[in-house]
Amino acid sequence: MACLGMTVVSMAKPSFLRAEQPSVPDHSAATSPGSSSSRRRDLVFIVNPQGANGRTGREWKKLLPYLRSRLGSDCNICESLTSGPSHAIDITREAIREGADAVVAVGGDGTLHEVVNGFFWGGKPVTKHDSKVPRTTSLGLIPLGTGSDFARTFGWTNDPVDAIERLVKGRSKSRIDVGVITKEGGDLHYFINVADIHLSAKAGYHASKYKRFGSLCYVIGALQAFFGHHNQDLKIKVNDGEWEVYPKVTALCIGNAKFFGGGMRITPNAHPSSGNFEVVTLQDFKWYDFIMKLHRLYNGTHLSVDNVLSRRAFSIQVEEVVGTNSIYVQSDGEHLGFLPRKFSILPGVISMIC
After folding, report:
1. How far apart are CA 48 and CA 88, in angstroms?
2. Catalytic machinery residues
3. Is residue 86 within 8 Å of 63, Cβ to Cβ?
4. Strand, helix or coil at 47?
5. How many CA atoms lie within 13 A of 167 on its CB side?
6. Cβ pair 314, 278 in contact under 8 A
7. For 118-136, what is each residue's pLDDT tens digit?
8. Which of 142, 201, 272, 326 could form a disulfide with 330 if both were Cys (CB 3.0 to 4.6 A apart)?
9. Which of 208, 209, 207, 210 is CA-nearest to residue 218?
């Protein structure tokens, strides 16, 4: 990890030390006798340089001088470039354990997804080594990815200058919910945006292979997913109630936020501070239904369409009626495998800079 413009000590693992001369008050940090009431904030920026076909890395290099000019006077700025899948998870965990004030994801929904998963370990939130300091690590975001769908829920654009200004005003924070996905005998997996099942998840799986085409990858993925697609009967248990059979399910989307697929407002009533998912089920859709109703999926008016069901839930369990082990599952655009899965919400578990 490279640290920019501040007093930093290198260690075997990604690490940073606070500057000796605090200059900016941090009213969120507790003070104790003999300690200073003001200090510098430690911000760790996790960058996926290969994101958006390398655009993220190029934009980040251009952004650094402005970042230093706006944050360098009162923050320790630490940069870490990811080198492959899951690297952002490891960096995030280390940063939290070392006491970072914020971990900032720089990139798209995939990078954000990994950073959010790095906030947890062994089914619990990661905590810093020095438990005497009650300060917690916040999540920040500079959206520079292909879709950046999570940012759309807050009305944020892919303008990095706007994102940096949010960090400058970083005392404004909101508690946000995170979804957790479980499978019997499997590891826990976390998501912050939208998890989905069947056709949309299959489309996302294929779209990930065409990111070099930018937002067009979602169209290519959807077209490829339609080949050989069959609507399936699914068993669904909501809020630990009774099992119900949903016939001819085309797609099932579990929204902690509103958008996926490059701007499709699939769960229009979801918000990551509501304490519940919005679960939207599309049933018995044909290929021509998507063509005719695609504009409604993008503008969020599809909930009034026949065969579309929306409900609120804090947990939902989904299984196949007839086990084929072929129903795709994804979260935040990341392929997770196949059903069965259970999705539960963790209310207000992360503090986010807004």
Report:
1. 8
2. 109
3. no
4. strand
5. 33
6. no
7. 999 999 999 988 766 667 9
8. 201
9. 207
